[in-house]
Specification:
CATH topology: Beta-lactamase
Strand order of the largest sheet: 1-2-4-3-13-12-11-10
Order of helices and strands: EEHEEEHHHHHHEHHEHHEEEEEEH
Strand content: 15-25%
Structural class: alpha+beta
Largest sheet: 8 strands, antiparallel
Number of helices: 12
Mean pLDDT: 94
Helix content: 25-40%
């Protein structure tokens, strides 16, 4: 094991990607990284497999290749893979109305919302208006019931806005109603186990010892100004639009993981938008299959359906451009997923990232345990640029 000052670094790179190792080390030196791992494959062959730093704030546990960490919204794409599997076997149809699978959903102006609109953040349900009790996010039945009776914040299908946390509860309920299984169960049986991928939504207690502590700030980090989930305000002072954005992150308290992310109960519960746990190798293994046209997990035609642009432009929740297929973020100039024009995947809070570039058969898995800028993160961007350089552009 090498070191970067007092920071342990391990792993290897193909010589063509030596600059990636340098940027990985630089993340610890000057960009506030605490612990992280990076795994990249090209054409099905692993070319980068690095670990570094610490799995705890006290800096007593070096990061290892099998360290798991909460990867936040990286789990949205894993949930999308599960839905794609169900579309491929005929259990779900993206053109069907959600109420076909979930009858209680079809009220309050949501009668015609399709699964396509739900998966592409067009359903108008990024938040709940009424105050929810703490711990509500641990109860899928409660969250599904509240969302089924919620009035959309905009007319579904007329705009898109990132369903930061509600995406997972909505998708989970459709999956459960249609298949009789949870997103986490299907992820394990139909994706993780066949691929040997260390990815989880709802982590068994037997695996908790491998999980890195997630820290909301670390020495040397320079996070962007506090987003709504870490900036409590008096909701009575907010406009309707501001309330929507605030509640998307903070209703119920702890919805985004603050105060909960390191607790056993959080790790064990399925919260598909927010509490996926994975290793970098696990994320890369999923995207290695997807970069190869589905890798026997999802037929290529269904994968193409899910990774074709559905919406793009100004986001009603984020107030900046976003671009989505069905559950997947798509590359965009303001926030590229590598060099490929057809790249798809998902970022996670703190900087974690998984994506595939099908034109280069590139798969990328990067996981971290210290919060950083959520929009244009210098840590993952430096790695992305170095990978692109190693590919020759």
């Amino acid at each position: 094991m090498a070191s970067n000052g007092d920071t342990p670094l391990a792993g290897w790179c193909d010589p063509a990607f030596g600059a990636v190792r340098e940027e990985f080390a630089e993340n610890f030196r000057s960009r506030g990284e605490l612990g992280a791992a990076l795994c990249v494959s090209v054409g099905g062959r692993v070319v980068i497999d690095l670990t570094g730093g610490w799995a705890d704030a006290a800096r007593t546990r070096p990061w290892s290749p099998d360290t798991l960490v909460n990867v936040f919204s990286v789990g949205k794409a894993l949930s999308a893979v599960v839905v794609a599997v169900l579309v491929a076997n005929g259990t779900l149809d993206v053109e069907e109305r959600v109420r076909r699978y979930w009858p209680e959903f079809g009220g309050q102006g949501k009668e015609d919302v399709t699964l396509r609109e739900l998966l592409s953040h067009q359903a108008g349900l990024p938040a709940v208006r009424g105050s929810l009790p703490e711990r509500a996010m641990l109860d899928q039945d409660l969250m599904a019931s509240v969302l089924a009776h919620e009035r959309p914040w905009w007319k579904p299908g007329t705009a898109h806005g990132y369903h930061v946390n509600t995406f997972g509860f909505l998708v989970a309920e459709v999956v459960r109603r249609a298949s009789g299984l949870t997103v986490g169960q299907l992820l394990r049986r139909r994706v993780a186990e066949p691929l040997g991928a260390d990815v989880h939504i709802g982590l068994p207690a037997s695996e908790h010892a491998r999980v890195a502590e997630f820290v909301w700030s670390s020495p040397g980090s320079s996070p962007e100004p506090a987003p709504p989930d870490v900036a409590p305000v008096d909701p009575a002072l907010l406009t309707e639009e501001q309330r929507m954005e605030y509640n998307a992150y903070r209703n119920p308290p702890g919805l985004s993981g603050i105060g909960w992310v390191n607790m056993a109960e959080w790790r064990s519960t399925e919260i598909p938008s927010t509490n996926g746990h994975a290793s970098a190798r696990g994320v890369a293994r999923v995207y290695t299959a997807l970069a190869a046209g589905g890798g026997g997990i999802v037929p290529s035609a269904v994968l193409d359906l899910f990774t074709t642009e559905v919406v793009a432009g100004e986001d009603r929740v984020l107030h900046r451009p976003s671009r989505f297929g069905l559950g997947f973020q798509l590359t965009q100039p303001e926030r590229p997923l590598g060099p490929g024009a057809r790249s798809f995947g998902h970022f996670g809070a703190g900087g974690s990232l998984g994506f595939a570039d099908p034109d280069r058969r590139l798969a990328f898995g990067y996981v971290v345990n210290a919060m950083g800028p959520r929009w244009q993160n210098p840590r993952n961007r430096a790695l992305l640029d170095a990978v692109a350089a190693g590919l020759g552009g």
